[in-house]
Automatic annotation (TrEMBL):
The organism's taxonomic lineage, starting at the top: Eukaryota, Viridiplantae, Streptophyta, Embryophyta, Tracheophyta
Plastid keyword on record: yes
Protein name: Acyl-[acyl-carrier-protein] desaturase
GO MF terms held by the record: metal ion binding; stearoyl-[ACP] desaturase activity; stearoyl-CoA 9-desaturase activity
Catalytic activity: octadecanoyl-[ACP] + 2 reduced [2Fe-2S]-[ferredoxin] + O2 + 2 H(+) = (9Z)-octadecenoyl-[ACP] + 2 oxidized [2Fe-2S]-[ferredoxin] + 2 H2O
Amino acid sequence: MSLKFDSITFQSQKFTSFALPLMPRLSSSKFCMASKAPCSGTKDEVENHKKRFMPRQKVHVEVKHTMPPQKIEIFKSLEEWAENNLLIHLKPVEKCWQPQDFLPDPTSSDEFDEQFKELRERTKEIPDDYFVVLVGDMITEEALPTYQSFLNSLDGVRDETCASLASWAIWTRAWTAEENRHGDLLNKYLYLSGRVDMRQIEKTIQYLIGSGMDFRTENNPYLGFIYTSFQERATFISHGNTAKLAKDHGDTKLAQICGTIASDEKRHETAYTRIVEKLFEIDPDGAILAFADMMRKKITMPAQFIYDGLDDNLFHHFSAVAQRLGVYTAKDYADILELLVEKWKVKELCGLSADGRKAQDYVCGLPPKIRRLEERAQERAKQAPSIPFSWIFDRKVKL
Ligand SMILES: [Fe+2]
Ligand SMILES: [Fe+2]
């Protein structure tokens, strides 16, 4: 998955949580090497050591297990439904593309040299701002361990044993395995291009996986699957747009790569939206309340805690470039919301509770409000400065 809509562009978020102090940069004299026993320093030193592995941004207070226990039964009863309706959206491994299908063949040095040279030639003229966005997309894909943890945090559908034969668990593992190819392929392609600072990128991946993500889905599969429906659509849009731009810049191979990844995301979107569609069918009140809840919180982007060791606002900077290039924009956010409202037939829901009707009105009235905010954000973007990105050797890119 990848996505980089900057929710703060629209409305400042009120964090009800504690504020983490900014972490000091790693300084060798104070840093406890992993090979040694835990620091036997003062309480302050131990706390500072811990902070190095925490996100630099505020994290919301955890709200846990908000789905009433009796609703876990809904997911148990949907086990057979999931087998028939969810697993069909997975592709058998033997029919899947693999990163190597798109990369120079290392087993033949002549062919490798030629294909490598062609790759460098194709990527030579691609502008820096495109690379900033592609790198951000790739890093977001590379944070896959967190997404699998996230799915396994959801009550009623988690993989209880890491080898569970429940359909929900099979889906989660196979989905993860499919996703794993996305970051892998983009990473290798970017590495071979020689256009980006791989060490800085690798550090950013390590930071991001180490930070975790603040999804706010409360172990609740209603919230979780609304989140993934939204995300998969967003990544489909984002990879689709990097494909178009790659073609415009003359790299048809990269266009093919991004397009191929986008089509995986589309298939995942279909699967996750089918789950929520089913929830709307059997529990419309619960589903609409969850939909409104996620939209009030805003869909927090997975790469929200992205950090390269230098730029405390890297997520906002990366999002701004993606917005400017039209790879993923506030308009897309509104479009996705409208699409989901339509797909889940939210306007036609009837027989809802009073709270359910309020949630329905809220969700249906939201897209025009987001669009108005988007226009204002675009005005602000016109005066944006250029800033250096470590991923491209500190060259400056306009936000
Ligand atoms: Fe992906
Ligand atoms: Fe996906």
